[in-house]
Amino acid sequence: MKVLKFGGTSVGSVENMLNVKNIINDGSEKVVVLSAMSGTTNQLVAIAKDITEHRGDVAAEKVNALHVTYNQVIDELLTDAALNAKTKTYVSGVFNFLLGCTSKWTAELVENQIVAQGELMSTYMFNSFLQQEGVNSVLLPALNFMKIDGFKEPDVQYIEENLQVVLSESGPADIYITQGFICLDDAGEISNLQRGGSDYTATIIGAAIKAEEVQIWTDIDGMHNNDPRFVEHTNPISDLSFDEAAELAYFGAKILHPQTVNPVRKDSIPVRLKNTMNPEAHGTLISSKTSETGIKAIAAKDGITAIKIKSAHMLQAYGFLKKVFEIFETYQTSIDMITTSEVAVSLTIDDDKNLDKILAELDKIASIEVDVNQSIVCLVGHAVVNHQDTFRLFQILQDVKIRMISYGGSNNNISLLIDSQDKIKTLQKLNSYLFEMAAV
Ligand code: ADP
Ligand code: ASP
Ligand code: MG
User: Fold this and answer.
1) In Å, how far are 44, 124, 193, 195, 274 from 116, measured between CA atoms?
2) What is the pLDDT of residues 315-362, one digit of tens each?
3) Does the beta carbon of 118 lie inside 6 Å of ligand 1?
4) What is the average pLDDT value for the chain, to the nearest integer?
5) Residue 224, ligand 1, Cβ within 6 A
6) What residues does 33 pair with on adjacent strands?
7) Domains of the chain by range and CATH?
8) 5, 185, 195, 215 - which has most CB atoms within 10 Å?
């Protein structure tokens, strides 16, 4: 069985939902994971913030406006009167629930409850649409099987067992539709896999059912060799290894949630990236095969904080780095990049939730300097560190201040830390040199 995930744009209009129906309706059994309609999750996040910050009236206005939009989509999508009425009743239930959310709840509960509604509505609406079109589909409620543990990792055993139960209880169908993104946490409360998490849902399900392939359908023809939001003349990459795709996703290629590849690499389940608006395009195939050497793609991740930790004779004093790392471990904050010298270690984090506490602890053992608004630019490929293009990077980027560089940590990645305001310039210069062969 295959798992096919469709993102926000793919279910964001009636026209695109029709494209999705045509793609999935080929008679073969499959699991279809859907995101919320594009824009909805952002609107729900804003509504949750209004509620938490005691702007109940503003929130109610937004909820009512969104309700009107959803009713319009339902009218366009569902011409069958009974299915139209049933779906409007479901959606009204959701909007009434949103109107009842209150600042008396914790901010986390408000947000988690509210953002989950986008996927619940899109799947219900799309399933109604398939029924109207005579497709044999059934809804699988993600909250009955998708769960994360105390470390926010998928609870693999729980998911496998419960997904089997849900599948067998649903009875046979051609298409099993489920919600991306949403899950339960270890306490059984509603939670999610973080923004963009529907990709991750698809590969978690793919691994749980040992799928033959996972397909991520979106609004672009696969992973491009640079970020198309900031750079012109980017091109799709036809093949990537799991390692290459994992580096690109982790270091900012928005087309994939950072963790997407992890669940499926162990069983070498291929992941295909495809364009809903242009299904004929090859897209990108992510698999265990490695292909040609050299830099294949560039990605950038914003919101990075760099911390320089300085202590005389740092490297000679064995145990020093251990103490440093233990502080980050205590506050469950992972480190992305690291460079050392005899007197200092510089490292980066992307989660600054516990930054103040971390800095207070570090201050006890060393002097520290902090730089915010940094970006990691990551060059990814196979055997990149040995490749002939690599040696000129400093020359190409001579007018960019490189704060840190990580080279040789893996064969797949060279990472540079720069000020975020230099990001677009850096991505463009690297693109011209590496992929457009222009004189620089
Ligand atoms: P979906 O809603 O389908 O999950 P996303 O918006 O999350 O779609 O991801 C697709 C978008 O990712 C593209 O429209 C593109 O703007 C952006 N993107 C960023 N980097 C890349 C890249 N390297 N290759 C392709 N798309 C990228
Ligand atoms: N709807 C969620 C988001 O916008 C999950 C996803 O689209 O993957 O982040
Ligand atoms: Mg996405």
Assistant:
1) 9, 13, 11, 11, 25
2) 677 788 889 999 999 999 999 999 988 888 999 999 999 999 999 999
3) no
4) 94
5) yes
6) 5, 178
7) 2-219 (3.40.1160.10), 297-439 (3.30.2130.10)
8) 5
CA of 198, closest atom in ligand 2 = 8
Per-residue model confidence (pLDDT) at position 315: 65
Q: Which of 115, 181, 201, 273 to mutate to test the pocket of ligand 2 (most atoms within 8 A of CB)?
A: 181
Distance of CA 230 from the midpoint of ligand 2 (Å):
21
218 close to ligand 2 (CB < 6 Angstrom): no
Residue 410: name the closest of 190, 245, 244 by CA.
Answer: 244
| Ligand that lies nearest to the alpha carbon of residue 10, given by its number in the listed order | 1
- Ligand 1 mean position, distance from CA 254 (Å): 5
Region for residue 300 given its phi and psi (left: phi exceeds 0; alpha: psi -120 to 50; beta: otherwise)? beta
- Alpha carbon nearest to ligand 2 atom 5, residue: 196
The strands making up 239-241's β-sheet, listed across from edge to edge, are 137-140, 175-179, 30-34, 2-6, 213-218, 271-275, 284-287, 239-241
Cut 0.85: pTM above it: yes
> 402-410 and 367-382: which strand pairing?
unpaired
